[in-house]
């Protein structure tokens, strides 16, 4: 470690000594037996060989400790191998691993009731899946069944899954294949107040605003009006007069932690409902307290969707997803049979229930707000220091740092990180940017 960097914050957890196969053998297997897509998405020139995790920390096979700032793609919310969640999983594993929702078993019903209690009325009906792609795929189907309409609108830059149907929703070219995907999906301009044609210094609900000049009077947002005009243009030119749904992440995840003008979604929801469409909030990355100010990202926009999809943080790394909707919309789903073998299995429900309890008991959402705000404020200082950093944005621990000539850094750590961890990360990030600028 360079001498001008601080030591890693202390950790009293001791990982097990790694005694498994060699790194060379793992890479050989990765090349020969894992689908080549696995190699394609290996981000690092020198891959990290992860062995064990505890809370915000990871250890590689050589015993080196890392501060995790990505949480398995915004998935590990309460911390790696959190003792409370681990204990709940072990207890359920001794009792019942799996049966299907054909049968009546306590964990499913206890969890559905608990999860529904975290959502506002009338969002009280739950269907459990295994992933966010499955949840969004199912939400598409339910919206079309309920409305009798077909067309669905999403934002440019959105990511809603990798199934053949949700690939139609996704507007992000690296995740698109040259084959027919979900038809009836139309993209509209993303109201991005940093990269888009309109934006100012008061647009978004974030402790850090853009550096763009803004002449709007208080309570008036020209950028919001312009982006809503683009949505109206999409309605007028690209879809039928009646639509099935509008999908939006409260803060775009894969698109780079993009935030919209404060009142955009509230006005967009009105326009969608006027055309018969359902409003669907994709909370796969923003849910479960990650934005800090609210448990759900949509609450920060002052809206109540018709459907909410969720995954990732719902299970802290255990495969589980969900669609939550109203009784009326849910009743449209029984026009045929639908069955998900693993959705809502006993293990997933026990883990999901423990995650909800842990968020409440540990004050995870509050930590996300306070530590996330501190982190964004410190990152904004680096933006002011280095011209290569164009923007810092987000809420809680859903953060984006956009580089002027490169891609966006997404900072979505386990929500148990501390201010001491933030200071370490910012010092390392500052050193990395300084070294890069010096080489240039």
Describe the structure.
This protein has 440 residues and is an alpha/beta fold. It has 2 domains: 1-67, no CATH class; 84-362, Aspartate Aminotransferase, domain 2. The chain contains 13 helices and 13 strands. The chain has helices at residues 23-32, 36-40, 71-74, 83-95, 106-117, 132-147, 166-169, 222-237, 264-274, 327-331, 346-362, 364-385, 419-439, and strands spanning 50-54, 57-60, 65-67, 125-129, 152-155, 185-188, 245-248, 278-282, 307-310, 321-325, 389-395, 398-403, 408-411. It has a 7-stranded mixed β-sheet with strand order 4-10-9-8-7-5-6, sandwiched between helices. A 3-stranded antiparallel β-sheet has the order 1-2-3, with no helix packed on it. Helix 7 links the parallel strand 5 (152-155) and strand 6 (185-188). Helix 5 runs parallel beside helix 11 (346-362). The chain is globular. The two termini are 22 Å apart.
Please state the overall shape, judged from the principal axes of the Cα atoms: globular
* Series of secondary-structure elements, N-terminal to C-terminal: HHEEEHHHEHEHEHEHEEEHHHEEEH
Which segments are poorly predicted (pLDDT under 50) over 5 or more consecutive residues?
none
CATH topology of the largest domain: Aspartate Aminotransferase, domain 2
CATH class annotation of the largest domain: Alpha Beta
How many β strands by DSSP? 13
Q: Could you say what the CATH architecture of the largest domain is? A: 3-Layer(aba) Sandwich
> Helical stretch count?
13
Percent in helix: 25-40%
Biggest sheet: strands, sense, closure?
7 strands, mixed
Mean pLDDT: 95
Q: Which structural category fits the helices and strands?
A: alpha/beta
| Oligomer category | single chain
Radius of gyration: 22 Å
How far is it from the N-terminal to the C-terminal residue, by CA?
Answer: 22 Å
Enzyme class: transferase
Cofactor: pyridoxal 5'-phosphate
Family: Belongs to the class-III pyridoxal-phosphate-dependent aminotransferase family.
Protein name: Alanine--glyoxylate aminotransferase 2, mitochondrial
């Amino acid at each position: 470690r360079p001498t001008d960097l601080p030591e890693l914050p202390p950790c009293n957890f001791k990982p097990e000594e790694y005694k498994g196969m060699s790194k060379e053998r793992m890479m050989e297997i990765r090349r020969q037996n894992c689908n080549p897509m696995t190699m394609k998405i290996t981000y690092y020139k020198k891959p990290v060989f992860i062995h064990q995790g505890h809370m915000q920390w990871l250890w590689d096979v050589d015993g080196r400790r890392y501060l995790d700032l990505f949480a398995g793609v915004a998935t590990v919310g309460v911390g790696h191998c959190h003792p409370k969640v681990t204990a709940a999983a072990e207890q359920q594993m001794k009792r019942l691993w799996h049966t299907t929702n054909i049968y009546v078993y306590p964990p499913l019903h206890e969890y559905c009731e608990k999860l529904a209690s975290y959502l506002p009325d009338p969002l009280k009906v739950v269907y459990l899946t295994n992933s966010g792609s499955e949840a969004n795929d199912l939400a598409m189907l339910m919206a079309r069944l309920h409305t009798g309409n077909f067309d669905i609108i999403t934002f440019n830059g959105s990511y809603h899954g990798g199934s053949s149907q949700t690939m139609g929703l996704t507007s992000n070219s690296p995740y698109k294949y040259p084959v027919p995907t979900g038809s009836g999906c139309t993209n509209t301009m993303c109201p991005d107040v940093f990269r888009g044609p309109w934006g100012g210094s008061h647009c978004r609900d974030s402790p850090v605003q853009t550096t763009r000049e803004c002449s709007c009077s208080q309570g008036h947002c020209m950028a919001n009006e312009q982006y809503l005009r683009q949505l109206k243009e999409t309605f007028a030119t690209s879809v039928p007069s009646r639509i099935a749904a509008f999908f939006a992440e409260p803060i775009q995840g894969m698109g780079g932690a993009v935030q919209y003008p404060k009142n955009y979604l509230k006005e967009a929801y009105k326009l969608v409902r006027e055309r018969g469409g359902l409003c669907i909030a994709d909370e796969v990355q923003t849910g479960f307290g990650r934005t800090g100010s609210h448990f759900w990202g949509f609450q920060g926009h002052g809206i109540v969707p018709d459907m909410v999809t969720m995954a990732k943080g719902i299970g802290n790394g255990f495969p589980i997803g969900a669609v939550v909707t109203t009784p009326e919309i849910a009743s449209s789903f029984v026009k045929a049979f639908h069955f998900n073998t693993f959705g809502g299995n006993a293990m997933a429900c026990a883990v999901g229930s423990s995650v909800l309890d842990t968020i409440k008991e540990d004050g995870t959402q509050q930590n996300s707000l306070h530590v996330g705000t501190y982190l964004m404020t410190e990152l904004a200082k680096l933006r002011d220091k280095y011209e290569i950093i164009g923007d810092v944005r987000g809420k809680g621990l859903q953060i984006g740092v956009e580089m002027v000539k490169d891609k966006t850094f997404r900072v979505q750590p386990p929500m148990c990180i501390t201010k001491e961890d933030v200071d370490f990360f910012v010092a390392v990030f500052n050193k990395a940017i300084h070294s890069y600028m010096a080489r240039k």
